[in-house]
Amino acid sequence: MNRFISTTVRRVVILSAGQGKRLRPLTDGCPKCALDIGGKTVIEWQIDALLNAGLEQIHPVLGYGAAEVEALLARRYGKDQVRPLFNPFFEVADNLGSCWMARDKMTEDFLLLNGDTLFEPGVLTRLLNSPRADITLAVDHKTHYDDDDMKVQLDGERLQAVGKDLTPSRANGESIGMLLFRDAGPAIFANALDDAVRDPTGLRRWYLWVINSLARSGAVRTCSIAGLRWAELDFPKDLADMEALVCGVDEVDAGVAGHS
């Protein structure tokens, strides 16, 4: 276990059901999370970093190419620490549906991670040691935000809004695709997911639509990971950048990439 992390959090839900259509043709026969980055798949980089940090109950939510990913995980990790879930709605639903499929795991403190986010170990350290709050969203900051950024609007450390549709003038940060739920947070989120899937448009939305709604009540805090490295995989150019960044990284500290 990473000796710099002081936490009782052991559970992780990883949202890995998507194909990654913007990465075609790379993902025509391979799910995004199974793409190779410097000798290991995306999901292996993530799980290795999580296990190294002491997060021992890992639940990837799979969809596209699920059988392939399940076989990969079984070979590499066995069936005790990594226990996949399946989202049968992956072709018609966005990642809110994957969160809803994992709601029975939201009975204790847990970490929620996008399946296309890589990070250096310090990102986990900072988030897991952040001031206690029901829901904490990890955010980064830069000088310019574009249409594809999952932008955030902040009031100090309190989240006011999150979404790609925020205008750049309102944005003072971006979500990195990692959230921590503690105390009442898991139940708050699980209940909000149940309400969201009853909305006619709910399954076609990102789970951060729910977080945006919860933010209006003041329930969501943020943790800045400024100065630490992370990256997300959306386009073919990101794959090359990630591979260059992870090459040569010691496996003990794997899970590392950089945000450019």
Model description:
The protein is α/β, with parallel strands linked by helices and 260 residues long. The chain has a single domain, classed as Alpha-Beta Complex (Spore Coat Polysaccharide Biosynthesis Protein SpsA, Chain A). Helix content is 27%, strand content 23%. The chain is built from 7 helices and 13 strands. The protein has helices at residues 42-52, 66-77, 95-101, 121-128, 185-198, 208-215, 236-246, and strands spanning 11-16, 36-37, 40-41, 57-62, 85-86, 110-114, 117-119, 135-140, 151-155, 158-163, 173-181, 220-224, 230-232. The strands form 3 sheets. Strands 1, 4, 5, 6, 8, 9, 10, 11 and 12 form a 9-stranded mixed β-sheet that branches. Strands 2-3 form a two-stranded antiparallel ribbon. β2 and β3 form a beta hairpin. α3 crosses α5 (185-198). The longest helix has 14 residues, at 185-198. It is globular, with a radius of gyration of 17 Å. Mean pLDDT is 86; it is low at 1-6 and 250-258.
Question: Which short descriptors sum up this protein?
Answer:
260 residues, alpha/beta, Spore Coat Polysaccharide Biosynthesis Protein SpsA, Chain A, nine-stranded mixed sheet, globular
